[in-house]
Amino acid sequence: EANLPLVINTWGFEKATLTAWRSLQSGSSPLDAVQSGCSACEEDQCDGSVGFGGHPDETGETTLDALIMNGDTMEVGAVGGLRRVKNAVGVARAVMEHTLHTLIVGESASVFAQDMGFRSESLSTNESMQTFSEWLNQKCQPNYRRSVFPDPAVSCGPYKPRAEAKPRQKRGLVTLSSHDTIGMIVIGQSGQVVAATSTNGASHKVPGRVGDSPIAGAGAYADSSVGGAAATGDGDIMMRFLPSFLAVELMRSGATPTAACNSAIYRIKKHYPEVFGAIICANSTGGFGAACNKISGFLQFPFTVFNPQSNKPQLYKVDCV
Ligand code: SD4
């Protein structure tokens, strides 16, 4: 018996879940619902990790990655390193519907967005500028560069995102530790599976760095004949394993959503036991699950679900493996 429709997303982003659910209830398509859910997070700057004003790069600029996928048609639209446009998932949708491409990046993505009528505006805020200047003023700036001759006065070497269980600071106050991409799967009443992601990536990234979130099969994947998956965590590592694709393929072979999620995390863990990664999985009948990699200080991964049973955004926490 199918338990549909279903909205499921990473983290405790309940407003996003509710927005997507209401969109479905008002008769919108699953694609519109998943887009509106992720857009709500962009406007809300969820955890400072989605949308404008979070995670400035090495030059202080915030740039955005997003993806949307239609599991009926296997169409995908995505943007990487999008500058000066707040609604990244909207631009991803425009890539899918108004071009024959899948992924457009950087300054050119911004020009495309402007051509499509999106407003061009700064993605910086007082908070993101403060994060940037605090980082600049550190004696030793943790960053993503691998120095051949490490100069501790300039750099602490590769920056390690530190996942932690304690509640995030309030909106806009970005910490080095928060990196909470929204990844959402929506399954419509008739079984159409769609997925989307939106993020501002990693703090102090090298300009031009694109993470896993806008990569189909990495950040998210959807196939209406099977289900969907969406990932969050250290994208530089996670994208090497295409965990969302893997999880969907495992469900195709008969794995439950929970088993598929676990296997995708174990695959990464085998090579990178200390790297934070988490994934949500859902099958086309509305079954769902999640998994995360247990690292020090991070033992449980929260995710949010709305389905006919819950009747509200229901927060779940899965124990990490
Ligand atoms: C990235 N995966 O750009 C994103 C960040 C993230 O939870 O998911 N944080 O690497």
From TrEMBL:
Chemical reaction(s) catalysed: N(4)-(beta-N-acetyl-D-glucosaminyl)-L-asparagine + H2O = N-acetyl-beta-D-glucosaminylamine + L-aspartate + H(+)
Active site residues according to the UniProt entry: T181
GO MF annotation list: N4-(beta-N-acetylglucosaminyl)-L-asparaginase activity; peptidase activity
Keywords, in A-Z order: Autocatalytic cleavage, Hydrolase, Protease, Signal
Site feature (Cleavage) residues: D180, T181
Domain of life: Eukaryota
Enzyme Commission number, as recorded: 3.5.1.26
UniProt keyword annotation of Signal present: yes
Stated family: Belongs to the Ntn-hydrolase family.
PANTHER family named among the record's database cross-references: L-ASPARAGINASE, N(4)-(BETA-N-ACETYLGLUCOSAMINYL)-L-ASPARAGINASE
Name assigned to this protein: N(4)-(Beta-N-acetylglucosaminyl)-L-asparaginase
Organism, scientific name: Tachysurus vachellii (Darkbarbel catfish)
